[in-house]
Amino acid sequence: MTTEIPVLLAAVSLFSALQMGYLARQVGLARMTHKVMPPTVTGPPEFERTFRAHQNNVELYPVFLVVLWTSGLLFSEVLAVLGGVVYTVARHMYFSGYVMSTKKRLPGFYLTLGALFFLSVLSTIGILHGILLEYFYKTVSMMVTH
């Protein structure tokens, strides 16, 4: 656990937010290219793949932020940042692949799952460690000293 300001976690979070903005812009450009006006979300397959690729990123983003920050604050900021960088690269691979064809999204998808699994494991270990220290170690220490 860290007592310092989590600057690296903040940097990865900001980078990922900028990435989300970039992906949203790609949907806007696809709308203009294929003349699909909001709120319509159907159109040529190229537009629909771009739209779905962005939506899939939006759907996973809260999960990513939770496991990024939990693992970084409760386990290791450096390892969490590593997982966060892998996640953002994986999401770019996913988006770019999906825009080309649905099958080309799979390498990015599998790398995304690996990054989220890694961050989830670190988060779980950090949480369990904190619970053990807070609720079991203190209790046992108090029982032994009395």
UniProtKB/TrEMBL annotation:
Keywords: Endoplasmic reticulum, Leukotriene biosynthesis, Membrane, Transmembrane, Transmembrane helix. GO terms for molecular function: enzyme activator activity; glutathione peroxidase activity; glutathione transferase activity; leukotriene-C4 synthase activity. One of its GO terms (biological process) is leukotriene biosynthetic process. One of its GO terms (cellular component) is nuclear envelope. Coiled coil: none annotated. It is a multi-pass membrane protein. Its main location: endoplasmic reticulum. SUPFAM superfamilies: MAPEG domain-like (SSF161084). It is found in: Endoplasmic reticulum membrane. The chain crosses the membrane at residues 60-87, 108-133. It comes from the Eukaryota. This is Microsomal glutathione S-transferase 2. The gene is MGST2.
